[in-house]
Specification:
The chain is 25% helix and 34% strand. The chain is of the alpha+beta class. Strands 1, 3, 5, 6, 8 and 9 form a 6-stranded mixed sheet that branches. The chain starts with a helix and ends in a 7-residue tail after the last strand. The relative contact order is 0.21.
Length: 158
């Protein structure tokens, strides 16, 4: 019986220690999950990802609703109306969501052989925010599109 109590104490001690370690890991993960960039630094992030220059709000179309019913599956279709010729083409498209914990979402690389810039993806939005799409041509010209998308609270847009 005495051995049984020693085992129970060791098992309890183990689970207590494991619980404390689990809480420490969870707190550490929360701290490292903090945003790398604040929304105020979105222009610096755009410059870092696509380069510096004036963004002309032209040629980029994003046909997404003004209000997303479900923030975990926001549909983002992107079309860039620009030639895709050997010396004049869109080489990169980058997507940013200002209020997400990590505002830089993705970038796509294109070549003249791509034929057309026409992509669609789904993203997760933490809350209502501006969605920015910036396209960079091989000549360095930047084209953009910005749209505020409202994310319905509780996943209900009604």
């Amino acid at each position: 019986m005495e051995n049984m109590n020693v085992l129970m104490m060791n098992r309890r001690g183990f689970f207590r220690s494991a619980g404390v370690a689990g809480v420490a890991v969870a707190v550490g993960a929360t701290m490292t999950g903090m945003p790398k960039y604040a929304s105020a630094d979105i222009n610096a992030l755009i410059s870092e990802q696509v380069g510096q220059g004036t963004i002309t709000m032209d040629k980029v179309l994003v046909d997404t609703p003004d209000k997303a019913e479900n923030g975990t599956m926001v549909r983002i279709p992107v079309v860039v109306n620009h030639p895709m010729e050997p010396n004049n083409y869109i080489e990169k498209v980058a997507i940013f969501v200002d209020e997400n914990p990590k505002p830089f979402i993705a970038s796509y690389t294109f070549f003249p052989e791509s034929g057309k810039v026409d992509i669609e993806f789904r993203l997760k939005m933490a809350k209502s925010s501006n969605v920015r799409v910036v396209a960079k041509s091989n000549t360095g010209a930047l084209y953009g599109f910005t749209k505020k998308i409202e994310v319905a609270e509780g996943g209900c847009a009604g």
